[in-house]
Write a structure and sequence with these properties.
The complex is a heterodimer of chains A (480) and B (204).
Chain A (H helix, E strand, L loop, with lengths): L14 H8 L1 E4 L4 E5 L2 E5 L3 H10 L10 E4 L19 H15 L2 E3 L9 H8 L7 E4 L13 E4 L2 H10 L1 E5 L2 E8 L8 H12 L7 E6 L1 H4 L3 H9 L8 E3 L4 H7 L8 H11 L12 E6 L6 E3 L7 E3 L16 H11 L14 E4 L7 H11 L9 E4 L4 H9 L2 H8 L2 E2 L20 E4 L14 E4 L2 H10 L13
Helix pairs in contact in A: 2-3, 2-5, 6-8, 12-14, 12-15
Chain B lengths: L5 E9 L6 H4 L19 H4 L24 E4 L11 H9 L3 E4 L4 H8 L4 E4 L2 H12 L3 E5 L4 E4 L2 E4 L4 H9 L3 H6 L2 H14 L8
Parallel strand pairs in B: 1-2, 2-3, 3-4
Antiparallel strand pairs in B: 1-5, 5-6, 6-7
The chains are: A alpha/beta (480), B alpha/beta (204).
Chain lengths: 480, 204
Amino acid sequence: MTPVASDAPRPPRTLAGAIWETHVVAALDGETDLLAVDRLLLHERTGGVALRSLDDAGRTVAAPAQVFATMDHIVDTFPGRSDDTLMPTGKAFLTAMREGALKHGITLFDLHDPRQGIVHVISPEQGIVLPGLTLACPDSHTCTQGAFGAIAWGIGSTEAEHALATMTLRVERPHDMRITIDGRLGTGVTAKDLALHIIRRLGSGGAKRHIVEFAGAAVRALDMEARMTLCNMATELAAFGAIIAPDETTFAYLAGRPYAPEGEMWDTAVAHWRTLATEDAAPFAVEHRFDAAEVAPMITWGTSPQHGMPLDATVPAFESLDGTTGRADYDRAIAYMDVTPGDRLEGLPVNAAFIGSCTNSRVSDLRRAAAILKGRKVAPGVRAICVPGSTQVKRDAEAEGLDVIFRDAGFEWREAGCSMCFYAGGESFGAQQRVVSSTNRNFESRQGPGTRTHIASPETVAAPAIAGAIADPRRLEPLP
Amino acid sequence: MTPLVRVDAIAAPLMRDNIDTDAIIPSREMKSVSKTGLSGGLFAGWRYRGSSGREPDPAFVLNDPRFAEAEILVTGANFGCGSSREHAVWALAEYGFRVVIASSFSPIFQGNCVRNGVAPVVLPDDVCDILAGLATEGARIAVDLETMTVSAAGQRWSFALEDEPRLMLMEGLDAIELTRKGQARITAFRAADAQARPWVYLEN
């Protein structure tokens, strides 16, 4: 580090910039730094292959106590599941992950472990992610965990090997972007709607090479689970990561979690965490401002997360998209989704409803969906599935009786995992099936070859399950 | 990793924006705990008829015999978005692609390219369109990392690439070996940091 004269004022820093600086082991060529990694998370889809490749190269894991692994991507979510998976050859991934974790002394939240679940759900639950940390995982939705005031980002498998071997990564320094959301979200408007609103405005490449700090009164008012939902979707803006300054909400969530510091160490840590905030006049490369009052419940009409629209609007004409989508892509999306420009989506019959994923599978998400489902029945012919994000979420939900509400309505109540957020070769929704889903990606064939996915908040998924067609949860027929 | 300095080859045009890694290699094609055996699944959803078979769809560019020897892929904006699966690059590389030219890339995908000897070359939209046109006509495209230029049909365009990815590609370097040369510095950093932020350093 370059010594700075004691009387030289330090330029003001952003939250992300300050955390980054304290993790620079060495400045490399150009824009690249060798960055210390505080936590590395693995899952069975890529963890096993990374560890095997490490073995083949004769390398070892530098700091196994700072590495955690889970089974989430491939593992089945049916009750009574085992190592056998619907995905052909899936068992090999589970076995390789388990063998690798055992051999290298990595903590694995295995199939029947009460701490098992989707990596971005369990890491916060267990207090693995903490403010001020750097955290990497070979999964693009790792940005979720920036909600805790950490720099958390998705990497590839080869980079995971690098982090395993050295507890560092060679990373190009991202630029700072701040998205300030003023005001307060309206009743029935969620963090998912806010995320879809922002992505629609900025486009799916709108935050490329930036770390996005979400700020403003509307963000401060969100609970931790909603903050995770918002940060989760930042990868759909192509952001390097997302971050929210830690505050009392953050500390209250983390206190007492298994891997969070305890006692005096907790006090010391919190004192440090309180200093983690963007300083006045710190420079951002890009700033955006939104008014929370303008955000409505959203749903996607097309095949990119940027293809969002207010639930009560009509499918946009090409001309109204302001150039974020090209003509050929627009036509392709309209045809694939079998929707009509100028028509409402409300009333369009659906085949399935899916509640789950690292975006919206936490207990508050399930509670909001259950509030709509309570006393109602899933429409005939609609397949409705709820997959809690973690075994802990499932247990918490069951303790509140949410499982009974879901089951009574006609939902399948599953074991924790990523499940049908993506099609891994096992379960799928089927071609031309229309699914409303609380997940994060509506790409072509994401949930099964030819499957048509509309992404929305859990409540906006619950309503069509009941109505049998896309419906506004605020306007469901009242209970008798 | 094979060093990559210059590629002079046939290019396959695939001009769509936002081609995601699910499209490049569907999750169902990632069948083994391995970095190999993936080229057959490359663009499987578009390359084959139906959802699971292997009957080539003649309408897809890679099934056009003119592009059978392609080592360069020319494509649209935000290529490689979505899932961070490195299998997307492993499949492209195993298939024989050494360069992807696009108007922009997803950052994770771009990093994965560099670590697997595939050069991600960014050129403006209009240039990508010109190159796609030339590729369609069967022109060879030359990509030179030394001079950071792309040339085809007597035209030439410059592109930018950071020093580190450029060096890694040109010398076929292994990033882990490179980093391990500074191991003493990492060890010292961790020791000092453990004093400053002891809660970060968990013990088994």
